[in-house]
């Protein structure tokens, strides 16, 4: 589950990194030797964020590295350095100029930039290492990075190696490692146990659908339930996607990846909660027994759903899982899903869109998001849009009648399966970087992970 973090070192000897903001530049330059001043000016070093310059000593070795930063520290300010600096160990030499929280963020960003997915291809190069300041919580740092790496790995893994049975095996391993319980309801047993929509979406695949149910912690503790959409590949079903639309559909289990990674982080950090994790894991395939447009499905809750589009399958499997989550009246339910393209249109690919039926909870999440620089943004559960997924022959239609407000109508559809008294957060995320940026290589991405963990830590510690 947890990757070894090779981007950090405990070595005593380390090359100093000086982090310099614009307001500190002249003071820093004046403190340097005349030779170093000439070198920095000759290399046109400025304090633009993430610009860096190697400064040699008289032997031609690296004496130090100067790095430009904003006065308000950016999580990703050092993210490029792990893969760009010469191999060796570095240390933030002027860490006393920054708060402990800022040094933590800088170290976290270094680690995020060091990530490489090397399951199928040898890593392109080893990473430069950072000697982490003794002042920060290194156990938490490692735990957050390991959870982020695991989420990225799971999403990056091709569908052939990440089908429902693979998710099930990973969940079993997590339960074993942290002394929890894992139950899997598989194939036609889903009908016996009344999960009809999970079964309908996954029945056409040769990889049997399942509901994965993990439990950890004492029952007297506050109960938190995580639900993750585990569509391991989405062809669109009989409303089949074009080839371009299927290209990255290995990422459609990104919600499942997030709740597994978040569960690992919660368990590593020993938050005092009773944790439950539900993952409806399916492949939305094309086959002779695939569900059809126009079919009427009866959900676990009893609501009937007309299938307006078989490519709106994620909300179907989540609906059954959310109904089960509500049955135990937990203190809090949080679901993660790669549910709609509309959320990406609204907030782009780098912000985690979320909805909540609890204003105080949503406000706390927004505050946590900003505190840990894990960008999230609340969208409204605008009740008037319920009219967009009505059906003449069933309680609901799984596809909205309008191309507008798709993320909102999907969230409202899910809300129909929630109990009003249960506090709930629904994440609709990209979970994938389509282009590279600082600390974010192309591929799977953890979104909202640290914001939610910070929320839970503040709420239950």
Provide the fold topology.
Layout: E1 8-9, E2 15-20, H1 25-30, H2 34-42, E3 52-56, E4 62-68, H3 81-84, E5 89-92, H4 100-113, E6 129-131, H5 138-156, H6 164-177, E7 181-186, H7 189-192, H8 196-202, E8 210-216, E9 223-228, E10 230-234, H9 243-246, H10 254-268, E11 274-284, E12 296-298, E13 304-306, H11 314-327, E14 332-337, H12 341-347, E15 352-356, H13 359-371, E16 376-378, E17 396-397, H14 406-415, E18 423-428, E19 432-433, E20 443-444, H15 449-460
Parallel strand pairs: 1-6, 2-4, 2-5, 5-6, 9-11, 9-14, 10-11, 13-17, 14-18, 15-16
Antiparallel strand pairs: 3-4, 7-8, 8-11, 12-13, 15-18, 19-20
Helix pairs in contact: 4-5, 5-10, 8-11, 10-15, 11-14, 13-15
Feature tags:
33% helix; 461 residues; elongated; Aminopeptidase; 2 domains; six-stranded mixed sheet; Leucine Aminopeptidase, subunit E, domain 1; nine-stranded mixed sheet; alpha/beta
Describe the structure.
- With 461 residues, the protein is of the alpha/beta class.
- The protein folds into 2 domains: 8-136, 3-Layer(aba) Sandwich (Leucine Aminopeptidase, subunit E, domain 1); 144-460, Zn peptidases (Aminopeptidase), CATH 3.40.630.10.
- 33% of the residues lie in helices and 20% in strands.
- It is built from 15 helices and 20 strands.
- It has helices spanning 25-30, 34-42, 81-84, 100-113, 138-156, 164-177, 189-192, 196-202, 243-246, 254-268, 314-327, 341-347, 359-371, 406-415, 449-460; strands spanning 8-9, 15-20, 52-56, 62-68, 89-92, 129-131, 181-186, 210-216, 223-228, 230-234, 274-284, 296-298, 304-306, 332-337, 352-356, 376-378, 396-397, 423-428, 432-433, 443-444.
- The strands form 4 sheets. Strands 7, 8, 9, 10, 11, 14, 15, 16 and 18 form a 9-stranded mixed sheet that branches. Strands 1-6-5-2-4-3 form a 6-stranded mixed sheet, with helices on both faces. The protein has a 3-stranded mixed sheet with strand order 12-13-17, covered by helices on one side.
- A hairpin with a 5-residue loop joins β3 and β4 (62-68).
- α11 runs parallel beside α14 (406-415).
- The longest helix is centred in the first third of the chain and has 19 residues, at 138-156.
- The protein is elongated.
- The protein starts with 7 loop residues before the first strand and ends with a helix.
- The relative contact order is 0.12.
- The model has no long low-confidence stretch (mean pLDDT 95).
